[in-house]
Amino acid sequence: MKFKVSAPGKIILSGEHAVVYGYPALLSAVNKRLTITQTGAKHEVESGIPIGCGMGSSAAFAVAFSALDLVTKKQQLDLERINKEAYRIEKKIHGNPSGGDNTISTYGGYLWYRKETESLKLFKNLETSPRLRGLFIINTGKPIESTGEMVSYISSRYKTRKKYIDAIFREMEKITREFLSMTSFKELIKQNEILLEKLGVVSDQTKNVIRKIEKIGGAAKISGAGGKKENSGILIVYHSDQGKLLNFTKKNNIDISKLKLGEKGVRIE
Amino acid sequence: MEVKLINIGTPERPVMIPEEAIKLSTKEGEEWWNMLASGSAILELEDLDKLLELSKGDEV
Fold first, then answer.
1. Could you tell me if residue B59 is inside a domain?
2. Range(s) of the domain holding residue B11
3. Residues on chain B touching A87 (C-beta within 8 angstroms)
4. How many Å apart are CA A217 and CA A237, to the nearest integer?
5. CATH superfamily to which A135-258 belongs
6. B60 → chain A, closest CA residue
């Protein structure tokens, strides 16, 4: 007998770095999924979620694995149970996961998250599911710095220029809140990117690509920890005229893929 | 999946993290720090300082 389940990865729309300091973050499930197929005793895992770039691949595995366990026992897809079990698996692997990745991979859609203290974490699943067209992902390449170094960099800036960095984080929080309405998406992406550049987590090389995208009428921001020397990881890109953007990326030999936000959570395939 | 977790907190207030998180340049360490930067993993700021101190020497 064959069983097949899949769970989505996620992307951080707003709040990277700031979330470490207790500011909110907005996450969205995306159209990159991990699928587990079980045929007899054999398991096969296929994943379209890039590994190690903050897109929730390990949580998607934990969620799909937990769902498969129920399906093979001919039980219903009890999302609460799946989420709980996936969190237990995530704890075994990562020690102190926030629970954000498994929650969004289980339920899909959008998730508002804020750390108050280690034991108090606020999650809010958002009902909104706008049909935003014209969103893409560009991978600027793996940053030279490790993500730990980027976190360390912000941590030392936070200590030496606390007021300034807090001011940036407060502005970022405003944008994160405005993202909830999912209007003026282009402007919010632009403003968010400006703040990330002020934080110092975007390289000149990446800024150059982003300025060119802005010049042809689009907007882009890094998603994740970034990188300041060469590459800065993943970019979320928006352009109302997809043809224009695709022409630009083709001309500049840039890999681009479509991004769908608010993807459905775990499901039987 | 076998992952070794270590306690960077105290016995009374354990703060468990994967051992690889101390090694910034490993694939597993990278994955964990990515989770931290985007809110998928969680640390109090004092524990973050402690971990950054522990991981010094593994910076590129």
1. no
2. 5-54
3. none
4. 11
5. GHMP kinase, C-terminal domain (3.30.70.890)
6. A145
Whether B44 maps to a domain, the answer reads yes
Q: Is A45 on the interface with B (CB under 8 A)?
A: no
- C-alpha to C-alpha distance for A193 and A172, rounded to whole angstroms: 10
Q: What value does the mean pLDDT of chain B take?
A: 86
Asked whether residue B48 is domain-assigned, the answer is: yes
The Cα–Cα gap between A41 and A124 comes to: 38
- Is the ipTM higher than 0.95? The answer is no
Collapsing DSSP to helix, strand or coil, A235 comes out as: strand
Task: Using alpha carbons, select from A56, A57, A55 the residue that is nearest to residue A46.
Answer: A57
* DSSP β-bridge partners for residue A214: none
How many C-alpha atoms does A221 have within 13 Å on its Cβ side? 26
Other Cβ atoms within 10 Å of A87 Cβ, number: 21
pLDDT in tens, A116-169: 765 566 666 666 555 567 899 998 888 999 999 999 999 999 999 999 999 999
Domain-located, residue B35 = yes
Q: Where are the alpha helices (DSSP H) in B1-60?
A: 27-37, 45-54
Fold entry, domain A2-129+262-268: Ribosomal Protein S5; domain 2 (3.30.230)
Q: What is the pTM of this model?
A: 0.89
Number of domains into which chain B is organized: 1
Whether B59 and chain A come into contact, CB under 8 Å, resolves to: yes
Task: Report helix, strand or coil for A135.
Answer: strand
Report residue B60's pLDDT band, with 50, 70 and 90 as the boundaries: very low
Q: Tell me, yes or no, if A51 comes closer than 8 A to chain B by beta carbon.
A: yes
Query: Over the stretch A186-234, which tens digit does the pLDDT of each residue have?
Result: 999 999 999 999 999 999 999 999 999 999 999 999 999 999 999 999 9
Summary mean pLDDT of chain A: 91
Residue with structure tokens 């893409």?
A: A136
Helix (H, G, I), strand (E, B) or coil at A86: helix
Q: Residue B3 — very low, low, confident or very high, per pLDDT cuts 50/70/90? A: confident
